[in-house]
Amino acid sequence: MAMTKPTSEQVTFLQTGTGATTRTVDAKLKDTVSVKDFGAVGDGVTDDTVAIQAAVTAAVGKILIAVGTYKTSATINLQSNSSYNFTNATFFCSGAIAYNHLTISGKTNIELIGGILTAVPGTSPVSGAHPTGTYYGGTGVQIQNSSNIKVFNLSISRLFGAVNVYNSSYVMVKNCLLSDNAGGIQAVSDN
Question: Which residue from 81, 126, 148, 156 has the fewest beta carbons nearer than 10 Å?
Fold first, then answer.
């Protein structure tokens, strides 16, 4: 009689420690989402924008991780009630027009940890803001009309602005390395 292998829905997992409860391996694996689960390559050459945005959208209420070097050509819009761990990831902007790397607009309860947001020097489209193309024309992290946002241990370089905060509350930016940007942290409120 042939034996069949159990599926991840049948195999259980028990975390070490007092009070831990048994869960299925399937449930445990779905706690964390990787951008690679949605087709991101992370080789620094392939444009991973669409895959990263799909992962961000699917990771609401979970932890999204990225490991590798990612080329993007448009803004990635982060979602409420999510945690993003980009500690081992580098994001390079590229594209015909300037854009913000990461945007948090009208969102709440976001934690962004680690990573590098940068641009290749001299790749910026020429504009009035940077006529020589020295800096890429967007901002590393754009936060607007949002609350309870935490940005930790992020490195932002070679961009026009590092972090812009508009009409938002309870925003914490801590232990970030800002270098070779045209601007640093800007906070503006209508109130």
Answer: 126
